[in-house]
Amino acid sequence: MKREQQEVLSLLKEIDKICRKNKIPYYLSPQLTLCGVTGQPFPQDPLCGVVLMKTGDMERFRIAFEADPPKRRTLESMKNNKRFPGLYLRYENMDTLCFRLDEGRNFRYPGMGVDILPLRGKIASRKVHLWNRALEVGWQQSCYLYNNKPGLSGMLCKLPVRLLSLGGRARLGKRLYEKFLERQDTKGSDEYVLRLNRTETLYYPAEIFKKTAQLELEGSKFLVPDGKIWYLQKTYGSDYENVPAEEPKPDWTVMTSALVSYEDYFQETGSLKKLIKARRRQYLKDSIGRRRQRYYNWCWNYAKLCAGQRELDVYYEEKKDYIKNLYKNGDYVRLEAVFRPYTRMNQRCLKEKEIYASDEEMMEIYLDVLEKTVN
To answer: Which of 61, 281, 289, 303 has its CA 20 to 30 A from that of 363?
Structure first.
């Protein structure tokens, strides 16, 4: 194992030790559970360290950590960091480095760490759920995100957060953290919600997490749901055993080191605020060019589509008498073969929300042939 992998594994052991000492249940992430069950190698991604806890247990873990914090370890959250980007905890080693250039200085202590994600209970009231979600998205959007320009819904979600921040962002972060935990408590919920990231949300029956079991991972034992197979099937499907191991994808915007601390790194490089702001400004300028490029690509593809339609028009005009003769004789086998280009063109046109029809008579024959040969 590489040093970064060993560091993530070591932090997982420390979390396990704290949880066992305070009798707090936790569960390895689906990715790590899959590695333990199928024997896949430990992920090489330095951000792979993830465990799950129910909302109430997550708060118990935070309190237990603050009562007896290990040396050179920290636990960041919305409770103690006004720029922390979401409802979860991050357990970090302050003697290492894990700086994400695309997220600026959202993390006060950007060392290598393990994310503790909450298993949320469903909110009964639809209105409360929408308001809660709007505040959470607004908080995330108001944190630093280099390549994520919010759309209209994101801007609307940011508005109430900005207004509420007038009383102090640190105070608002603590308040929202407590409200989110209270509203999404798992007691009495028959289904848990897991938000892995901003775009991926998973739903699990509460029964999966009723009990815990032990699973060996790289020679150490960790806790997983007692129904770990059910857990993996809900995440990856029934063929979870055939899910390939994730290939490492180097990311030049994430600087990691298990030997250099973030303090030494920033002492050497100095403040990166100017660089971060310059990257953000340049990204926003380049976004105009990217939009134009996407539009030009669409125009070129649409022009090729129209040219293909004109070619088919000529082809079917020449074959019209032959097709009518086949249709009159009921030769649907040959008609199906003749209309294959017609079908392919319609499939392409449907992506542009259009329908291809060379002429009305040909379209009527095509629809009748399609109806009789669909099976």
So the answer is: 303
One-letter amino acid of 17:
K
Q: Which amino acid makes up residue 206? A: A
Report the distance separating Cα 236 and Cα 360, nearest Å.
47
Two tokens, residue 148: 């994520």
Question: How far is residue 145's CA from residue 161's CA, in Å, rounded to a whole number?
Answer: 16
Across the chain, mean pLDDT equals 88
pLDDT in tens, 285-341: 777 888 888 899 999 999 999 999 999 999 999 989 999 999 899 888 898 889 999
Strands 89-93 and 113-121: antiparallel
d(C-alpha 86, C-alpha 74), whole Å: 17
Nearest-angstrom CA–CA distance, 28 and 242: 20
The C-alpha atoms of residue 122 and residue 124 are separated, in whole angstroms, by 6
pLDDT confidence tier of residue 92, bands split at 50, 70 and 90 = very high
Specify which of 47-61, 193-207, 262-276, 361-375 reaches the highest per-range mean pLDDT: 47-61
One-letter identity of residue 37: V
Helix, strand, coil fractions of the chain, as percent rounded to 5: 55, 15, 30
Instruction: Annotate 305-328 with three-state secondary structure.
Output: HHHHHHHHHHHHHHCHHHHHHHHH
Q: Are 90 and 78 in contact (CB under 8 A)?
A: no
Q: CA angle, corner 118, sides to 117 and 123, nearest 5?
A: 145
**In this structure, are residues 209 and 30 in contact, taking their beta carbons and an 8 Å threshold?**
no
